[in-house]
Amino acid sequence: MPKKIRELKQILRLAGFKENSGKGSHTNWVHPLYSGKVTISGQNGTDAKPDQEKEVLKAIHEVKRREKNGES
Predict the structure, then answer these.
(1) Would residue 70 count as lying in a domain?
(2) φ, ψ dihedrals at 5, nearest 5°
(3) Which residue, of 32, 50, 61, 72, has the fewest CB within 10 Å?
(4) What total number of domains does the chain contain?
(5) Distance from CA of residue 55 to its chain's centroid?
(6) Looking at the domain assignment, is residue 18 inside a domain?
(7) 25 with 52: CB under 8 angstroms?
(8) Measured in whole angstroms, how far is the alpha carbon of residue 63 from the centre of its chain?
(9) In CATH, what number is assigned to the domain containing residue 23?
(10) Residues 7-66: pLDDT tens digits?
(11) CA pair distance 22, 19, nearest whole angstrom
């Protein structure tokens, strides 16, 4: 069962990402150790698309890897 948009946002918050508003239902998430931004689109109660879940997991993995390696 796919995660809800609100769940992806909560996962990003817990990983230390900060939310920046975007256009419409889009939100951009940034982290000092992540080399880009994660864009989440959709209302909180809707199901997340598989590519959105993959993007969130990839971003969190990169942040954890950089934290482990002591990168700034």
Answers:
(1) no
(2) -55, -40
(3) 72
(4) 1
(5) 7
(6) yes
(7) no
(8) 11
(9) 3.30.920.30
(10) 999 999 999 999 998 899 999 999 999 999 999 999 999 999 999 999 999 999 999 999
(11) 9
Exposed/middle/buried for 40, CB within 10 Å: 0-12, 13-18, 19+?
buried
Please spell the DSSP secondary structure of the chain, one letter per residue: -PPBHHHHHHHHHHTT-EEEE-STT-EEEE-TTSSS-EEE-S-TTSBPPHHHHHHHHHHHHHHHHHHHHT--
- Tokens 């609100």 — which residue? 6
Beta carbons within 8 Å of 46's beta carbon, 6+ residues apart: 4, 5
**Residue entry with tokens 């969130």:** 56
**Any idea which residue has 């920046």 for tokens?**
20
Residues spanned by the domain of 17: 5-64
